[in-house]
Predict the structure.
Amino acid sequence: MTMRTDVSHFLCSIEDGIATVALDRPDRKNPLTFESYAELRDWFRDLAYADDVKAVVFASNGGNFSSGGDVHDIIGPLTRMSMKELLAFTRMTGDLVKAIVNCGKPVIAAIDGVCVGAGAIIAMASDLRIATPEAKTAFLFTRVGLAGCDMGACAILPRIIGQGRAAELLYTGRSMSAEEGLAWGFYNKVVPAEALAGEAQALAARLAAGPNFGHMMTKTMLAQEWSMSIEQAIEAEAQAQAICMQTGDFKRAYEAFVAKEKPVFEGD
């Protein structure tokens, strides 16, 4: 399956096995709408079956990553919905996180400026995060009278930065600075704004070079082993690695090592 780029509610391009996506309302600091939520969810779901994409960069646009759910397009209408309609919405937003986690491809968030609410969740759900010194990430759900437990935040964020730090951010809704995010392990790297896109693309290119089946299996295990005992995890990894040992890329790596060459992975 070839991944589509003809999307309507966000930006999307694919080049050299790297898909670059970004929200496209820079004048409003890239808020999410009902339509962009749903289209992103469907796009990431389809990504699991695409052979032409090896890695994804979720980019910033116009100096900001995302301002989260649009106040006028989402928050206002939510106040007038029935319980059934509200649950359909919250399940849909959670499905976006599930789709990112289960897409089978490494996802890199390139974060500049505002990264709050659902935007912070998208960054959290990504595999790797690169930020600029101007990045301000906030899980500000309590600021609008809601709980901090949105879209998997209470499960995923503590695993990245620790329970106490996650609790502080989720209770207070305050911004995490780039310096804090780097020290706490939320960001893998902080770079100047002018270098952000290049750094994200370079990392994506390194991952896109493969071994792609191995990366898919790594992402799968990282997600599935959260709920496993150590014994279960070791057995699951034994099975996963045995499968990877049957790939052509494993044989190519061995042959390249013997020949004292750098392996060229082909994804099978």
About this structure: The radius of gyration is 19 Å. The chain has a mean pLDDT of 96. The CA atoms of residues 119 and 214 lie 28 Å apart.
